[in-house]
Here is the input.
Amino acid sequence: MSDLYVTMTRPDSIDIRVGAGPRDTGNVAPLLNEVRHALVQLLDTGKETIIDLRSIPLGPGESERLEETLGEGEIEAVLHSLGRSTIRETAYPGVWLVTHYNEEDEIMGKFVEVTHIPQILKSQNEDINEGLQRLGSTLEQTH
Here is the structure.
């Protein structure tokens, strides 16, 4: 269903637009400043920051403008678990764009993570232990 926006500038003039809202929320620059502040915190205190992009209103094209400004870095990873997740380093080391999709490939979450490495890429102790057990079994079978 499309959104319907009605604007009255004068009593005899009504502008109706379907599926189009305000063009620019003005949130791109504040988001970039928040990322800059988060980088300072990461360097000074080691504190990591996660910014939920889906909780911040962005007008048409603003999400793309934010991603274009952040650019692309050297690392990109794709995780397949209950849907796909993409983890992409931006042009600014320590700033990552993480997007989670469901099984129908619809975006379920989109985040800017300011960290040395996103949590989703870190191996969990349970997984490491399971891998250790499998490696042990593999070595026993080869000897």
User: Anything to note?
Assistant: Residues 28-45 form the longest helix (18 residues). Helices lie at 28-45, 62-70, 125-142. The longest strand covers residues 107-114. The chain has one domain: 23-142.
